[in-house]
Amino acid sequence: MKQLFEAHKIGGKTLKNRIVVPAMVYSIFRNDGYVAEENIEHYRAIAKSGAGLIIQEATSVSNTGRMIETQLGIWEDEQVTGLKRIADTVHEEGSTVVIQLHHAGLMSVDGVRDCPSDFSVPVMFTLAMNGKEMTPHTLEQVKQQFISAGRRAYEAGYDGIELHGADGYLISQFFSTNVNKRTDSYGSQPGQFALEILKEIRVITSDSFIIGIRLGGFEPTLEKSTEYAKLLEPYTDYFNISSGFFMNSSSKPSKPEDYPFSENVYAAEIIKKAVRKPVFAVDEITDLQMMETILEQTNTDMVSIGYGLQVLSKNNQK
Ligand SMILES: Cc1cc2nc3c(=O)[nH]c(=O)nc-3n(C[C@H](O)[C@H](O)[C@H](O)COP(=O)(O)O)c2cc1C
After folding, report:
1. 163: which of 38, 53, 103, 206 lies 20 to 30 Å off by Cα?
2. Is the pLDDT of residue 250 over 90?
3. Of 187, 242, 250, whose CA–CA distance to 213 is shortest?
């Protein structure tokens, strides 16, 4: 039986336990994407919680693909020095850290919002959002931005990367057949964009570098997401199951009526039945007892705690 506090291997790295702190944007300090002193102390505090794996918040691979102006960035080589300080700090505290690579696509803060196809969301946070179909040239450029970001993460000393392929951002927009109406192979095979990025990052890093993906559990259905997981399995070390593209009504997370945990945990349990690689459960997991129960009942491999992080810090101080 899986134990919460047992060492566990993800890709080529051994984690000290099965607890994950999921990516949570906390960047409010600068608007050039560079790491501030506050970011470093923030990650030191998170690492002190004792979680086995820390996922650094969504960090933008592109200056123009940020979701907020103050988002952390990994779009230029000069940003590596600051990022390295975060990776080193988490290591000093005895934990493992991967960085989440992100592009907001349609939800970018301003400018031309790159999207697999022309797509409009009428009102989102009071702003209309109009995504513009990426040309083959732009698509290739953005793909290379992800790959270069993977290289920078490796140089900065992170243990790995997590490709943000969920929650409605650019890669989720590719997966979503509600949004992605392209007539080229990136449309006929909506998983191709993510697959090529994962594959290339492996080529330029090492076998022990963790390459994971956050995938929507309902993109737009659990069956479709399971297909994506199987497609990507040869190129990824783990699946972290979250929400899909959520800005229209055809993506409806659901679970059996009597299921005791969240829809995303349910999706993780079902996807785990179809793949051999580790699957992470996340969403509304509030205490250690619940974590243990989820590991036991769902056969997932890692459990996440975001909002409830204080629970972990208190346990660690005992
Ligand atoms: C303030 C905040 C920021 C977040 N930022 C990110 C992010 O950068 N990337 C991401 O994939 N999810 C992000 N999330 C979602 C969390 O990773 C997680 O899935 C969510 O909080 C549910 O887990 P919880 O119930 O344990 O908090 C964020 C959530 C919150 C509350």
Report:
1. 38
2. no
3. 242
Output 198-202 pairs: Cβ under 8 A, ≥24 positions apart.
198/163, 198/232, 198/235, 198/236, 199/235, 200/143, 200/147, 200/150, 201/146, 201/147, 201/150, 201/151, 201/161, 202/235
Mutational pocket test of ligand 1: of 19, 20, 25, the residue with most ligand atoms within 8 Å of the beta carbon: 25
Under DSSP, is residue 112 helix (H, G, I), strand (E, B) or coil?
coil
Locate the domains of the chain by residue range.
Answer: 8-317
Tell me what pLDDT residue 102 has: 98
Of 201, 265, 211, the C-alpha closest to 100 is 211
- Angle between helices 192-204 and 222-232 in degrees, nearest 10: 30
Looking at residue 73, the DSSP 8-state letter turns out to be B
In the sheet that 119-124 helps form, which strands lie side by side, from edge to edge?
A: 113-115, 127-133, 119-124
Q: What is the mean pLDDT of residues 36-59?
A: 97
Query: What DSSP element (H or E) covers 106?
Result: none
Q: What residue's CA is closest to ligand 1, atom 14?
A: 24
Q: Where does the pLDDT of residue 312 fall: very low under 50, low under 70, confident under 90, or very high at 90 and above? A: confident
Mean per-residue pLDDT, 100-109: 95
Atom of ligand 1 nearest to the CA of 166: 11
Looking at CATH, the fold of the domain delimited by 8-317 is given as TIM Barrel (3.20.20)
Mean pLDDT, residues 43-60 taken together: 97
Q: What is the pLDDT of residues 147-190, one digit of tens each?
A: 999 999 999 999 999 999 999 999 999 999 999 999 999 999 99
Ligand 1 atom closest to 100 (CA): 9
Beta carbons within 10 angstroms of residue 199's beta carbon: 15
